[in-house]
């Protein structure tokens, strides 16, 4: 029961932090949204800072299990078509999974206030994506699916525009469908430029 309450607190905190930021969220308002008193909330978390750090831990695990990370590397596709399929699965998840969307908004806001959020924002918006796709492209080169090149530079070139379009979806959700179509078109252009053959 206590663990269920903690989960409800964390879910409400993620939603509130994504809308108002850490500084704009107070414990009284957070507890009130759950029909709890402040004292009841403090039985589960000692402070707003503890809620914040627990939430970051959960967000890291949730993102890594579903999207991937340097610690949860995706499998190397067996075809160039497989790269498109994998990319669009990842994009669909990150654009439509509400927890991931809220997490991205929280990190975008809090990266200027909190050192841990800053490090996570850099990892999730830039370095983590580059590391994952460096692994993917190295493997695809080894399978003869992509022409030999610097896999890290290719990963940076591939993920940067996709990441920019995902952030566009956060700012302007009504453009999500067009952004996803543009990402798919870009992925096919990348394959046309760097692909060797399709084993698919």
Please sum up the structure shown.
This protein is mainly alpha-helical and 200 residues long.
The dominant shape is elongated
> How much helicity do the residues have?
over 70%
Low-confidence stretches: none
End-to-end separation in angstroms reads: 49 Å
How many strands, which pairing sense, and closed or not: the largest β-sheet? none
* SS class: mainly alpha
- Give the number of DSSP strands: 0
Element-level helix/strand string:
HHHHHHHHH
Q: Please indicate the percent range of residues in DSSP E strands (runs of 2 or more).
A: under 5%
Mean pLDDT: 90
Over all CA atoms, what is the radius of gyration? 19 Å
Q: Please give the count of helices.
A: 9
Keyword list:
200 residues, mainly alpha, 74% helix, 0% strand
List the helices and strands and how they pair.
Blueprint: H1 2-20, H2 27-33, H3 38-42, H4 48-66, H5 80-96, H6 98-110, H7 115-142, H8 151-171, H9 176-194
Give an account of the 3D structure.
The longest helix is centred in the middle third of the chain and has 28 residues, at 115-142. With 200 residues, this protein is mostly helical. α1 packs across α4 (48-66), α6 crosses α7 (115-142) and α8 runs antiparallel to α9 (176-194). 29% of the residues are buried. The radius of gyration is 19 Å and the shape is elongated. It contains nine helices and no strands. The protein has a domain at 56-194. Helices cover 74% and strands 0% of the residues.
């Amino acid at each position: 029961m206590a663990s269920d309450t903690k989960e409800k607190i964390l879910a409400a905190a993620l939603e509130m932090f994504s809308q108002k930021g850490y500084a704009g969220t107070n414990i009284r308002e957070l507890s009130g949204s759950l029909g709890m008193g402040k004292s009841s909330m403090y039985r589960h978390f000692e402070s707003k800072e503890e809620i914040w750090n627990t939430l970051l831990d959960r967000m890291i695990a949730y993102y890594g299990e579903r999207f991937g990370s340097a610690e949860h590397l995706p499998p190397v596709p067996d075809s160039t078509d497989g790269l498109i399929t994998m990319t669009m699965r990842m994009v669909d998840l990150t654009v439509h999974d509400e927890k991931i969307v809220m997490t991205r908004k929280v990190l975008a806001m809090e990266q200027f206030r909190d050192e841990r959020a800053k490090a996570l924002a850099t990892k999730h918006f830039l370095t983590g994506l580059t590391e994952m796709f460096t692994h993917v492209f190295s493997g695809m080169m080894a399978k003869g699916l992509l022409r030999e090149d610097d896999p890290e530079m290719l990963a940076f070139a591939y993920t940067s525009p996709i990441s920019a379009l995902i952030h566009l979806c956060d700012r302007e959700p009504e453009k999500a469908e067009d952004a996803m179509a543009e990402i798919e078109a870009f992925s096919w252009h990348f394959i046309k430029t760097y692909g060797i053959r399709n084993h698919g």
